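Format notes (please read before filing issues)

Several people have asked whether sequences and structure tokens are stored in separate files. They are not. Every record keeps both together, in the order shown below: the sequence lines, then the token lines. Line labels are part of the format and must not be stripped during preprocessing.
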Amino acid sequence: MAGGGNVLESVREDDFVEYYLFPPIDSRDDKEQEVVLNRVLSQAEKVIQKFTKQYLWHKDEFKLTARTWISNSLIHDNGKTEYLPPHLHGVTHFGDNIEDEWFIVFLLRQLTKEIDGLIARVYDADGEFILIEAADYLPSWANPDTCENRVYVFQGNVHIVPLEDQETCPEMTQMVVNEALSLIRDDPVDSLASADIQNCIINKLKDYPEKIRDNLHRATAYLPIGVAAILKHKPNLIAPAVQVFCNRDPVDMRACKAMKYFPPENRVSASVTFTKCLYAMLTHSKYVPDRRTGWNLPKADSPQYRAHNLGVKIACGFEILISQAKPSQDIDQDKGWHNYLASLKEKNYFKELLEHSREYNDLLNKAKEYYINHRDSMHYAPAIGQEILQLTKTLDFKVDELKNSEANLPPEDDDSWLNISPEELDKMLQERYGQKKFVTINNNSNPTTLTEKISSFLDQVSDMDGVEHPDVENSPVRPPRGVKRRSKVSFAQDTKTEDKPTNNRISFDPNAFSCAVQNILNFVIPDDDSWDLESGSDMSDYAEDNCVNEETYQEVKNKMQQYMEEMDKELATTTIGESFEKKNGDGFDDIENFKPVDIDMNALKNILESYRSQLGEAGPSSNMLGPMGIHLDVTNKDGD
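Then the structure lines:
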């Protein structure tokens, strides 16, 4: 679904979340609609202010604008245009911090609780991401094609407008927003999602608003006086500064070498509040400042190094932002404009017109005009740089006060959360996605366990979606071959399985197949028409053939025997055989000192050696055995 009435408005990055708030308005008069929308907007802003006062947005803030009936439209994927009822609308880009997206869901849920009759709709680039969270509990008909325009939040609860005819093709199930709103208001019980779905969303949001504070991190940074004063005046400017620094390019680096606006000569220690996401981004962004600029960082093992290092990066971020501030009509050097233009081209805005043609230039001029008029509200606009530039000229601050405050800075937060051990990561994944059943294999394990597990996995039924490996608890019996469980992908990140037995039994004659392969190896073409693909023959035809005549077969056998004898002579002069693990020669008592190779033990030994060489990172052994439910452990009982 494309939001907005035209391509110019709907162009955006993939990290967006779009939301609508529909109040109950029956009037078709624009003035009456505006009165109601402004009243609801005023109520909504009070609720938003209550919860976002201490919130630090990663990229865009949550912002609502009023839209009357005739001022907006909705263009569906099938090209049909639908005029939406009057509503409040907003788009937020959340960048690398997915918490912003779910915090917006929390806000929408609170708004529908506190404002009577308000119905919310929210989606992102993946579509109905709310349903992704509850994918295990969705009705059987629910998938991305059938759920468009059917998912809403009303009175704090999730509502899914049911599909009337589940056998209808997805193309015929397009729900009209206005109709969905009427169905929810007329019969809220019919569209109310199940308790399991409600609980999934409630559990996802249960830590808000307390979680707002938990997502913040306070650290001390050694900053140029101007940066410290600006952050004290407007702390949320730390977000664009960190982002622009972490996404810097060679052009931005020229500004960092000059440091025209925030020179390093006069600095002060200041307490800076980040989100954990921003702090992690800045900490892990490698940067070595040019000493000729005036940066004099202490040694890496010094207690002051972290504060100095953070200060350099933050100051460079502010310098880059100012360097990107351009006059209002000058967009030729505006990187935001070039990003916007590239997005328009991807959406075929220019309709394959010849560049510099009259029609192309007309569309280009319209795009430039739209960008200039709206870039202050666009996430990659130079408006932030202009704001910072203006603050450097008008902000009144006292250097003595900033220096005196160094002695009373609040303590820094512990940043040990940056380091997560593999065990902690496994625990987090298990809490999020459930406990996975593993069979642990190590040096002391029975080697047959490994081969049996692999054989069991290879025996499973597979289709284009992958292997259907039975869960130990839920599916103790593998479906017999020929009766296959169909797996249907529900949403972007989860699957929902429906049991639909299908008879896809294939008649297969192993002897005939063996003969066919033998013919290929011996370069023998049958005399009949069995190799003619247009004939009605099948593999069973080979069962009646003599794969090769006796003379040819004996000739091949003699050659193979000769090859084997030559190989034995070559290997006899080496010690390669001693590298294999042997087992007692049961059944070979008549052969002196003969010990057959223990295939299972050698397989286990080689796989464990491969796992050791991975040094805890991803590799062939863990990638191959992990999906089979096999956990490798290179230590033995003695801890070696």
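For reference, the curators noted about this record: The longest strand covers residues 216-224. Confidence is low (pLDDT under 50) at residues 1-5, 472-490, 492-502, 533-544.
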